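Render this sequence as a predicted structure.
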Amino acid sequence: MRTLSSYIRVGVFAVVASGLLMFVASPDQPFSTFEKVWFWPLVALLIILMIAGEASISTLKAVLYNTLDKEAKERYDLAEKTRKENQFAKIKRVYKKSLDSKPIESEHEIVLDHNYDGIQELDNNLPPWWLYMFYATIIFGVVYLARFHVFNEYDQASEFETEMEIARAQVEEWKKTAKDLVDVNTVTLLTDASDLNAGKEIFNQNCAACHKVDGGGGIGPNLTDSYWILGGGIKNIFNTISEGGRSGKGMVPWKTELKPAQIAQVASYVMQFEGTTPAEPKEPQGEIWNNPDAPDKMIIENPDKTIVTDSLQNSVVTNSKFN
């Protein structure tokens, strides 16, 4: 590896090989391959093999060159010199044209009369690319002046407000799928099977020891009845799991162990227990939870009794003709 082209080939090979390995190992999440233990050693091995191949080719060329006679070597050297001179010839011509400078042998034509201790000054033209950029800035300035200072299309304040409105809309759209941004004020009841299954797994791992797998209660209270110590509903349950129960005798805070999205999942799963029948239900603790956001209670009359129902589907007999 003695030439720039050899280093370029090795670099391109390393990039292409790494990309292929990423997509072959994990098509859905290719960048996760960076975390694999085997990835970087394998890439290093492939690069070493590529370098060995380049070195082998260079050695083979040297061996073949040494087998040539004197005249053949001269012809080969001349061909290589011509090839190198013509290499990137078009790019070199474009570059020289962009400078618009005189060749060294013609510099005497543009020498000025100024002479400073033997140092002479040349009257070179400005590079065309520099002139074109300068002309472009003049055109841009004229258009800008007419657009914003003559016709007053809009000012910086209105542009700022427009951009802020777009940004706020994008943030709100992003929040709809960013579950970990949920808090006690924004949490809502999750009903998707995937969320409830995730909540069930979290509950069984962390909560079942105190509340039992069926929610009947043990060290912790019964989760299947309508009685709640710190309030029911998704917001209160979320807050209790996050911040913990009563000081000194309640549940520990789980906000350091669980993400907000996970707390929302387990809180939604806990609400599924209400109305179920556990194997060994613990006696009720706390007070009956009445949802303040629920619709007004509905009175249903029948020939035998009057029944009041609320949003929790709790039915209470308020009057009976047989009493």
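Summary. Strands lie at 111-116, 119-122, 227-228, 287-288, 298-301, 305-309, 315-320. Confidence is low (pLDDT under 50) at residues 297-323.
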